Every structure is written in structure tokens, then in C-alpha cells.
# Entry
Amino acid sequence: MFRNLASLLAILALPVTAWAGNGNLPEARKLLLRGKYAEAAEQFAPLAKKDPAAAVGLARTLAAEGKDDQAVKTLAAFPDRHADVSAELAAMAFQRGDVDEAKKRADEAIGLDRRQLSARWILAELDRVAGRFDQAESGCRWLIRYYNDHDVQQAESLRWIGLAAAQSARWNRQADQFHFLVNELYPDALKLEPDYWPAHFEAGMLFLEKHNQGDAARELQAALEVNPNAAEVHAALAALAMEAHDITKAEAAVARALEINPRLLDAWLVKADLLWANFQVRETLALLDEKALPLCPIDDETLGRMAACYLLLDGPSKPGDGSRFARLVEKATKRNPRPGEFYFALAAQLEDRNKQSLAESYLQEAIRLMPRQVGPEAHLGLLYMLAGRETEARKVLDRAFESDPFNVRVKNSLEVLEVISGMKTLETGRFVLKYDGERDRLLARYATRHLEAVLPRLCKQFGYTPPSKTPVEIFNQAAGHDGHQWFSARMIGLPYLGTVAASTGRIIGMALPNEPEAGRELNWARVLKHELVHVITLQQTDFNCPHWYTEGLAVWSEGFPRPQAWNELLLQRAPKGELFNLQTLNPGFTRPKSSGDWQMAYCQAELYVEYMLTTAGGEESLRKMLAAYSEGLSTGDAIRRTFGMSEEQFEQGYTAFLKQQVARLTMLKYPPEEDIDQLLKTHRGRPDDPDAAAAVARAYLDRGADKEALEAAQAALKLRPKHQLATYVLARLRLKEKKMPEAVAMLEACLDNKAPEPNTLGLLASLNLKAEKYDEAIRLYALGEKLDPIHLQWTRGLARAYLASANQPLLAETLARLAKADADDLPVRKKLAQMALDRKDYPAAEDWARQAIEINVIDGDMHRVLAEALAARHNYPQAVEEAETAVELCPNDPQPRLLLKTLQEKP
# Structure
């Protein structure tokens, strides 16, 4: 949630009526709107004690950079009573939470000029924060009537009117007002004054409120084009980036906002939200208490966030129990007997920490206190979606949409519910699966069988069984959108989720595996098992299980080795010390700075689990950690209870374990992965280093700069005559000249069989395979696999060599290693299934065929192989089912039909 800053402070727009007769004031105003605050102040200052517009202008230049005390002194020093000066003092008092002073100054302004619109807006806001909603709405309606009765020709006036209209529309559920504001009123303000960036800002804030990220970004960027030093806009862009899960952009934007204005409350709130997203609850509370609260002690957004921190740090609380939470609630209620916005902010923070039950109760309280405000109701409907309570979600979201059809998340969620309503349902003992009845019938059948098979094993493994059936939803193309878009909208209300499946702990959602847009086959069985672990561990711990631990357990439970990409990241990052620890691992999942961070987070989470398994407790330690989290213990306390050591000692042990793991990854030395400019810089700094020269030669070769590659390789060989990488470059150049024997001879002469260079070894092996020298190719590929087990090119090379040499037994062994290393490799599993069937190893044929079907459930060949294997083992009922499926999938293939006929004739 991000507050609308304009509701707190009347910034930038000076009263146009005050410009007449002051030659330098229009230029000063332009400088102010353009963010040139120092220059604007120079022009305002000489007239600040004579002209009210200059006094207000100078105050705003100071406030824009956080010099609030100076701004107030500037206004207080104005010798005469003037409505605009009083209104500005009211706005500044309201900004710092001094409601009595704000009321006094706003009344004073209206007494001097009953048409002082910013003062009218401040009075309405004072009523709102005190829970006097009828009076607040009356104030808003006054501003709306003023617009209807007058030809308003000032951009600033349109701004206050727009804010009042938006507030009234929220309370009265007048959705058409949003369209009017962004398409007419704020554009009209810009027509009156093209530099009036607050019009772009307010439109952007309305779009952000509706989760319309594209239009919000467009309007906010337009505001920055006018005023690149508008701290409010940078803070809003930070909030927008957080909603889009772009942590790097959010951090940069909030840093820029605070650099401009270190007293900008909303920037500090975004900074607090960054800490909250990083699971740093104590740090969040400290920042709120030390930085945000002093700026405005009555701010509900700040207080709601602090209340959430208290609940997570201190545990549940009841009214009057003397806890920090109870005292804060009492404080908020004393000031405002209807603190709905406080409870709304509290609920949003708890929802972000997956505390759904608590969040629901506080959202309902916010709705009770603010029944006319649509925001809490929309959030409640989205929360019901996450909980799988779709019937309740529809009722709430329908009401929210009727009030606010421009809320993108609400609209998307209702459209998802329409898609779900058209799905078929397959209910089993422990699952309720919804799917596309026409296209995904087979997937539904096999998915539920798989889930029912793995659930008992996982429940035994973790010591917990979910008390109710788990909803599972698989999305295919519908209504012009692909399955991934529908899945994303199902999980977050927006079509941008960067994964193919997810679990909220209550439900499992998944995009149709193997959609054309996905680019490759996906092992849907592995994915469903992964998400099912989240259901078990999150419910088991009442959602206290931290992200890193539930993800680590889920990856470990898949039962496959670490992917090659993860191992490569370990090799790259470990020597540089660019790894996560328990304090930094969670944001690697929730707010990764890069795709590498995201992959590394999964890798390290699983490694933490592997490390736990090496302790005396073994698998029991995993269950003990879950039990500790279920009691609400912190990670440090959970480690102390489970392993009898401090978190620091645990990290030391993990670091040693990790070093051992990295050392086992490869014994080969790969060339540095750097751009050519960096390689050239290194080479120039070390001209006598043959490795540096060879690395440059390789980089030139990859760029097609053959002449430069040759020169660099020759330089390396002059320094070390049998340099392997330099020889590899020369051999590649010889191959371009069709001189294969010469290239082979060069490679054979330089290859060090005890410490081969990977590129040299791989090229020589492939050339031997091409020349049909299978024994030598097998020797070289086997050497690579032994020394470098994490890179699959050696195993794939072995498979090609065994295939070419017709060595079926060793080919099967090699392909099995490839299948184990890559959970999503369908062709390898299909080959293994057919090979096993051909040699009449029916158990192996059944196993490999089932694994292939768990990647592509509509592969008719694999259903036919499975049917034959089952029949050979006299499992005729299942064999018939598989043969029928093969016929259905391959209606023009006679082989499955013949098999089915044979099976049906069995007695």
C-alpha cells in the first residue's frame, strides 16, 4: 500500500492570482516546478516578506528538500495575515501530525478567503483522520460543487478538486469518477499549465492504487520529465517497483527520493517495506520508530506497520494486556475511534507475511470501521483467493468490482474465477483438482494419481498431514490468454508471475506444462511434488516456516541432483564470496536482484537442508526445525533447539560444508567469463602471462576476429609452447581452413591428460568421434566426466559415442545418468524406455515410460510402451487402460490398436 502524498502536503502549486505585478515570480514558479529549488529560492527570497506568493514559494522550495523548520519560519515571518500563507501553514502542520495547529490555520485561511481550496482540502483530511467521515465527505463535496459552479482556470485548484473527487468516489463507490479524473480533469490541469507535474503525479497515483502498473509508470515518468527532483515521484516509483518485484529499481528510487528530501515520510515507509520484504522485522520496526514516526506521530500507515512488527516479534495480543501492540491500538483508537486505515495497513503487512487468519480479521475490522471504503474489501477478496475460498472470494470481489471496476487485480481475479467456473473438477481422497475438461483430462488423471501417491510419503517424512483436501488448479489457454497468464492472475491478480507453479500453502496453482510458449518440456510431476511440500510445511508451522526453509525442503524432496546451472553459479560466486547467508537468503526468493540471485537462492536453500542432514540428527533434524517454527521460534532459536549451537556456529559449519561441496564440483579450470575489454586490460597488465593472452585469443575467436585471435594465441604459445587453450584457438582456426588432421595433431600434442583444459579436451573428443575413433572419443569424454561431473556435455558426448559404436549396455547406463541429472529431459527417457522394452527388461521399461509421461502426458508412444511393459508383467487392467490412451492419442498408428485388440482378447 502506498499513501497519496498529496493528501498531506500542498506542494509546488502557488496561487496564480498572486503573480500579477511581480516580474520575477513567474520565472521562480517555473524553476520550482522544474525542480531547480536553489535557483527558485534565490528569486523568491527578496520578496518573501512582502508578497504572500513569494513567501509560500520560498517555503515550498525549502520543504521540497526537507527543510521543513525553515519553511515554517519563512511563513511565520510574513508580516500580514493572508489566506494562502495560513493555508500553507495548515498543510505543513497536518504533514507533521499537529492536527490542532492544522485546524487553527485552515480555519484562519478560510476566514480570510472562504474559497481557499487547499485549506478546504486540509479540513476534510482532518475530519478523515479523526474518523469523522460524514464531515470529511461534506468537505469533499464542497470542493466538487465549487468545480461544478465555477470555471476553474488554475491547475492547483483542479488538483485539490481532483483529490476531493477521488476521495468522495471511493466512499460512494462512483467508479466513473476515476475515468473522469485521469482522462479529463488532470489533463485539463496540464492544458492550463504544461509544467504542472503534480497532475501527472496524481494520475499516476490513481493508476497505482488500481494496480495498473503500465499507466502508473507512464504518468510518473511524465512527472519526472518535468521535475527530475520531485522526491514524491521517486518514492512512488519505488512503490511501483516493489509491486513489480524489482527490488533493485525500488532501492535506487527510494534512495534518490531520500537524497532529495530526507524528511519524506512515504520514502521512509517504502524503505521500511524493503526491510519487511527482507524478513528483517526488528530492523523494520527500528526504522519506523526512529525515522518515520517522528515525521508524523499520527500517521496510520506508519502505526499499522509498527503494529504488524509488534505482533510478529511479541506474539498474539489482546486488548488491555499491556503489550506493545495493545498500547499502540489504544493510541490509534483514542485519536480516531474509527481507525480503519490503521487496521488496513496492519492487515496488508500481515498478508505479506502469509498471516492470513490475522490479516483476514483486521481486514474485516477495517471494513466494519470504513464500510464505504472499497480498498479493504478488495484486499479481503484477494486474500480469500489465496486461501482457496473461491465462493467467498467471488462475493467480496463482485462487490469490490461494482464499486471500483478499474482495480486491475480485482478485475483479473474475477476473470480467473470465470475461467475456473468453466473447469472440470476431479476429486480424490486428498485433493480437488480443477482443469480444462476438454484438453487436460489425461493430465488431471495422472496428476491426481501422482499426488495421492507422493502425499503419504511426504507426510511421513515431515510428520504432518494437512487436515483438509488441497485444491489444485491447472490453467490452459482460455479467452485469448495462455495458461501462464491465467495462473499468474490466479496467484497474484497480475499476469507477471515469473514461475510456472506456486503454492500459497492452501492451494496449488500451475500453468499448463509444456505450453508452446514455455520453450521446453517440464516435469509436471516434480513441480507438483515441490508445491505439495509447501502445502505441508507451511500449514504445519502455521505459516511461520521461513521462505528459505520451505523452498529448501521442497527442492530436496524432488529427489534430483542440483541442476548444472546451479553448480555453475556456485563455481562463479563462491570464490568471490557472493553467496547468501540465513540473514540474506529470503529476499533472494522474494526480491531477487537478478535471475542469478533467484537461482542461487534455491541452490543455497537446498544446500542448507543437505548440511542439516550431515548432522547427528539426520532427517529428524528437519522435522525438529519445523516443530520449532510451528511454535513461533525465530531461526536462531530454532537452530539452537535443534542442533544445540548458535546461529553463528551453524553458519560456520555450513560454510565449511559448502567449501567441500564446491571443491567436488569440478577439477577442470575454465577460462574466465569476462568481456573482452576486461580480458584485454588484464593482458596488458600482465603481458608475460600466457593464460591472459590465451583468454584474449579465445574471446577474439568467439567474436569472429580470426586475425587478432591468431596473434594472441601465438603470443601465448611463445610464452608457453604447449599452452592448451592457445592451441585450442589455433586448432579451431585450422578447422576453418578444412585442416582437420593438423588440428587433431596439435590438440593431441598439447593435451595434458592429468589436467586437461576443458575446451581442448572437448574439441579433441568430438573430432575423434567424427573420425569414428570411438575408443579414443569414449576415453576422452569419460575423462571429462570424471574430472568435471557437473557439466553434462561430457556425459552427452559419451552417449553419442556409445550410440555410434552400438554399445547398447553402456549407452543405457550413460543415458540413465543423464536422466538422473536432468529431471525434464524427455528424449532421454523415451530412448531408455524403448531400449528397455527391446531387451525385455519390463520393470525398467515401465519405470522409464512412467517418467516420460510425467514430463509429457500426451506422448502416445510412451503410453504404448507402458502398456506393453505392463502386459508383459501380466498387469492387464492397467495395460488395457494405457493401450486405450495410446490409441486415443495416436488414432492413425496401427501399433497401439493391434496391442489393444490383443489385450482385450486376453481371458
